[in-house]
Amino acid sequence: MVQDFHCTRCGHEGEFYRRGRICARCALREDLTAELVTRAAEPGPMRRLVDALCASDRPESILAWKRSPNVQALLRSLTTGETPMTHEGLDTLGYRHHVEHLRALLIHHGLLARRDPYLARFETWIRDKLAPLPRHVAQPVEQFATWHHLNRIRAKAAAGSPTHGPVHAAKQQITETIKFLTWLDTSHQRTAGTCTQQDVDAYLAAGPTTRHLIRTFFVFTRRTRLNTGIEIGHRTAQTSPTLAQDQRLAWLQELITGDSQSLPYRAAGVLLLLYAQPLVRVAALRTTDVETRDDGLHLRLGKHPTPVPAPFADLLAAHLNNRPNLNTGAGPDSPWLFPSTRAGQHLHPNTIMDRIRDLGVNLRGARNRALADLVTEVPPPLVADALGYSHQITYKHARASGEPWARYAGRGT
């Protein structure tokens, strides 16, 4: 006897999910309609939410996801209207994995406007950081955080540039500024406007090198005329970590031919070791940055596409054709070269960093070695334009390498 495996509701052929001979997608829609739409004060938004959740390529994963007590509580609060289905409403629930997963789905399906997640969390972080401070300490920090950092990061977000790195750096500078102004207030009863060069020098001399991050704050106070009497010079690191060339080549061979990591992380690691790409930038690459031409693959990292040499070209092509996480809410149309499990987003840079570090690769040392080798073979301006670096950075590495390219005729152009 031939058994019929077509869903009695939608006609999809496949495994039945429950009695009544219905598929997982129809079971999901049945459950969500009963739990959300029929109980909602305003059914319209809930119907759109149900459509978004049922659009997943793997409805079984949504059925499993919504069994979580936290998810059930979240969906109930949206249904009753206790939590508005807006960014501001979800923000009141704090940064929690199930909330951010739902937010990503809502953004991906057009139910919420797109926004930069790092920028949004940074704005909340600033408010929380300033809340316990006395007003005379908080006010200059708030001005510094808003006028210097927030305005700059908002401009980056509006232009579509990565903001993870700038937000991280801004948090470090703001945190160190708060530490200094708190010390200044409690030890000397002075403020940002009345502190002296002697105060700053004593503070820097008595603590770790991270204290030098307050330099940007005093650049800001000079520009805003809050305090024009403080000078803090640029701090130059005494040492710069680097890999030996044989270590770099060994890691390249392992990542291209070995099995120490899964394919996506091997490809990401090669981009670090071969092209000196920071992993923050690697995570944000799009599929459109990889171009297939008659003469092979090209990768756009800077002003113009760069050829991808064999055998990395084969590895990159294999990854491009087998990207993971496409059966989640993101679907097969994800634009990211390294898509996340969260709809519409790429892998978090820290996820890639942790996987490459777990192998034993010194990330900064790998990038420094790759840049040093590249500028010994190619004029620094060409390296900068091809890989998305500034000319100043590539000249710095050329000088450190002691190569004649450091005196290249095009220097400074």
- Sequence of secondary-structure elements: HHHHHHHHHHHHHHEEEHHHHH
The oligomeric state of the chains shown is: single chain
Q: Based on the structure given, which CATH architecture of the largest domain is correct?
A: Orthogonal Bundle
Structural class: mainly alpha
CATH class of the largest domain: Mainly Alpha
Radius of gyration: 26 Å
Summed over residues and divided by their number, the pLDDT gives a mean of 88
CATH superfamily of the largest domain: Intergrase catalytic core
Number of helices: 19
In order across it, which strands form the biggest sheet? 1-2-3
- How many structural domains does the protein architecture include? 3
Give the % helix.
55-70%
* DSSP strand content: under 5%
Model regions low in confidence, pLDDT < 50 over at least 5 residues: 409-413
Describe the structure.
This protein is an all-alpha fold and 413 residues long. It has three domains: 24-108; 117-223, no CATH class; 245-407, hpI Integrase, Chain A, CATH 1.10.443. The chain is built from 19 helices and three strands. It has a three-stranded antiparallel sheet with strand order 1-2-3, with no helix packed on it. Helix 18 crosses helix 19. The protein is flat. Residues 409-413 have low confidence and may be disordered.
